[in-house]
Write a structure and sequence with these properties.
The protein is an alpha/beta fold and 279 residues long. It has 9 helices and 11 strands. It has one domain. Helix content is 35%, strand content 20%. It has a 5-stranded mixed sheet with strand order 3-2-8-9-11. β6 and β7 form a beta hairpin. The termini are far apart. Keywords: Signal.
Length: 279
Amino acid sequence: MVRIFVAATLLACFVVSASAQIPSPPGAATQADTPAVKPAAKKPAPKSKAAAKQSAPAESGPCQIGIISAIGDKFAVQKVGLTVFGNELTEVPIHAWGLDDLVVARVRAATSGVNVRKIAYSKGAFEPYYHPPTRLFRNDDEELTSVVRQIAASSNCARYFVFTTYAAQLQGTNQSLPGIGVLHHGSGPFSNTSLFANFVVRVFDGQSFAIAKRPSADLGAILAGSFGRLGQDPLTKLEAEDFPASPADAVASSTLRDHTRALLAARLDKAVAAYLKQE
C-alpha cells in the first residue's frame, strides 16, 4: 500500500514538473499581459522653403497692372489684287485662338514679380471706340479713355495696359489692313502671302486714367515693322497655299493660328519692353 502511494506521488510530481517545462506558444504571454501598441502616426513631411516661398496666384493681392486686351476677337482674311476687282475682305471670329490671353501671358512674362490681372469686360464694350458715330473730328484717346473708365471702374489697379487694334495702310495702295489677319497681295508669280498684326498699347493711370507718354521712337520702329516688310519678315511670311480657300477655313487653320500667335508674341514683347524701359 505504501509502495502504491509513493509511486502515485512520484508520478504526480513528474507530471507537474513536465508541464512547467513546456514553453508557451510564441506571443501568447504578450497578448495576454501587454496591450497592443498602435504604430505611431506619420507626420506630414515639412514643406520645403522653396515651396513655402512660391509666389501667390497672379490674381490675388493688390492689382499693380490691369490688362484690358481687345485685339483677339477677329481675324481679317484679305486679298488685294492688281485692280479693285481683286480686292476682298472678310473678318472671322477667332476667340478660340486665345490671343487676348496671350497678351496677358506676355505682360506677365515681362513684369516678373508684379501682380498682373486680366480685366474682363462685356461683349460690345469697345463698340463705341471701334465703330463710333460719324463726326467731323474725332479724338481717339478721349473715346478710349471713356471706355476704359467704364470697364475698370471697380478694378482698383495701379495702372492699366490697354491693347487695341487699328487699320494700317498697305504701302503702294489705297487699301488698309485692319487689326490682325492674313493678306494675299498681287497676282500670279508677283503675289505674296503674309500675316499682319496692327495693334497699339496705351498705359493708363489707375486713379486719373491719364494716358502715359508713349515711347514713340521704339513704338514707331515696331509699327513700321508690322506692315513695312510684309512678305519679307520670317514672322509674317507665309506660303501661297497657307492662304485659306475660304474665310471660314481660316478659323480651323493651325498654321494661321500658330504663326499668328508667334508674330503677336514677338511684337508684344517689344511693345511692352518699350514702355517698361522708360519707367
